[in-house]
């Protein structure tokens, strides 16, 4: 057998390139979904602050251990990271209600 297999090498390079293209397409799709949710007026909960004692940011006041508060606009309190992720998915992909100030 040959030590260098140019065809196999090129096939591996193309497979990696295809994987990268597919990953990039997925990131574009997710970015478009976030932008569409924001245009529709939904808070996408893209940023939060978590509990800290003592509070460093005003948004941390009143939080309990394990909780976080949305700082993207709605100020919603999440009881866990899983709760936060579920709310993000609902807002971006599931048609959550429109964001209202101070919600």
Beta fraction of the residues? 5-15%
Oligomeric state of the chains present here: single chain
Order the strands across the largest sheet as they lie in space.
1-2-3
Unreliable stretches (pLDDT < 50, length at least 5) are: 96-103
CA-based shape:
elongated
Report the C-alpha radius of gyration, rounded.
21 Å
What do these coordinates show?
By secondary structure, this protein is mainly alpha-helical. It has one domain. Helix content is 46%, strand content 8%. The chain contains two helices and three strands. Strands 1-2-3 form a three-stranded antiparallel beta sheet. The longest helix is centred in the first third of the chain and has 34 residues, at 6-39. It is elongated, with a radius of gyration of 21 Å.
Structure described in brief:
The protein is mainly α and 103 residues long. It has one domain. It has two helices and three strands, in the order H-E-E-E-H.
Output the keywords.
103 residues, mainly alpha, three-stranded antiparallel β-sheet, 2 helices
What's the structural blueprint in terms of helices and strands?
Blueprint: H1 6-39, E1 48-50, E2 68-70, E3 77-78, H2 81-93
């Amino acid at each position: 057998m040959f030590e260098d297999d140019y065809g196999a090498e090129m096939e591996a390079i193309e497979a990696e390139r295809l994987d990268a293209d597919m990953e990039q397409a997925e990131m574009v799709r997710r970015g478009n979904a976030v932008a569409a949710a924001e245009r529709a007026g939904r808070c996408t909960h893209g940023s939060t602050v978590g509990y800290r004692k003592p509070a460093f940011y005003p948004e941390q006041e009143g939080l309990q251990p394990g909780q976080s508060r949305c700082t993207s606009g709605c100020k919603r309190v999440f009881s866990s990271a899983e709760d936060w992720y579920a709310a993000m998915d609902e807002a971006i992909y599931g048609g959550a209600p429109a964001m209202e100030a101070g919600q």
